[in-house]
Amino acid sequence: MPKKFIKRFLPDHQSIKDQKALKVFGTLLHDANLWHLNRKSASGAFGLGLFFAFWPVPFQMWLSAACAIPLRVNLPLSVATVWITNPFTMPPIFYGAYLVGVWVLGQPPQAFTFQLSWDWVVQSLETIGPAFLVGCGICAVVFGLAGYFGMNLLWRYSVRKAWQKRQQRHLNRMTHRL
Fold first, then answer.
1. Which residue in 1, 43, 19, 45 sits closest to 159, CA to CA?
2. Among candidates 63, 82, 79, which has minimal Cα distance to 24?
3. Which of 43, 87, 101, 150 could covalently link to 134 via disulfide, CB atoms 3.0 to 4.6 Å apart?
4. What is the pLDDT of residues 48-93, one digit of tens each?
5. Could you write out the DSSP letters of every residue in 110-170?
6. Residue 137 burial (CB < 10 Å; 0-12/13-18/19+)?
């Protein structure tokens, strides 16, 4: 069942409440619905986390947490899902988003080399920036929705399988008694 699998990877809710960056939410973090795992909260959190994972900003986790609270989805899962884009996966994911933007805008891809400088960032916003931002927006929406519906389907499937196993065990016990 997804619930058992997800719980193995989520941090303790107290450790999340103790994060300095989340202190701005104050007592809002005491809502029990933010910590429970069920189909609705897991699907929403997974979709939300994937949505913000494609935003090219350094504070993705904070944005995901800020939206998880009013939407009342699982806070730890929404914050953890953002880490799909991490320092190792960001280059291929964001390059893919750039290619999506190039395709949607009908532009030819431009050759560029990454440089860790403010001048390069400013220059890039003028050259590859529009295609990159459009691609990130499209990927955020598409993967966010796919994550929401995919988790929802996976949860339903696992519940159905567990129910069928219980029914089969019950039938096996009944036939052994006869």
1. 1
2. 63
3. 101
4. 999 999 998 888 888 998 899 899 898 888 988 999 998 888 888 9
5. PP----SSHHHHHHHHHHTHHHHHHHHHHHHHHHHHHHHHHHHHHHHHHHHHHHHHHHHHH
6. middle
Classify residue 29 by its DSSP letter: G
The pTM of this model reads 0.77
Which amino acid is present at 171?
L
Helices and strands of the chain, counted as H and E runs: 8, 0
Residue pLDDT, tens place only, 16-47 = 666 666 666 666 666 767 777 888 888 999 99
Region label for 72, one of left (φ > 0), alpha (ψ between -120 and 50) or beta (otherwise): left
CA distance 68 to 25: 11
Find the helix packing angle between 2-9 and 39-53, rounded to 10°. Answer: 50
Rounded to whole angstroms, the Cα distance separating 85 from 22 reads 20
SS3 content of the chain, % helix, strand, coil (to 5): 80, 0, 20
Continuous segment of H or E residues that includes residue 43: helix 39-53
| Burial class of 87 by CB neighbour count within 10 A (0 to 12, 13 to 18, 19+) | exposed
Q: Enter the tokens of residue 90.
A: 């960001």
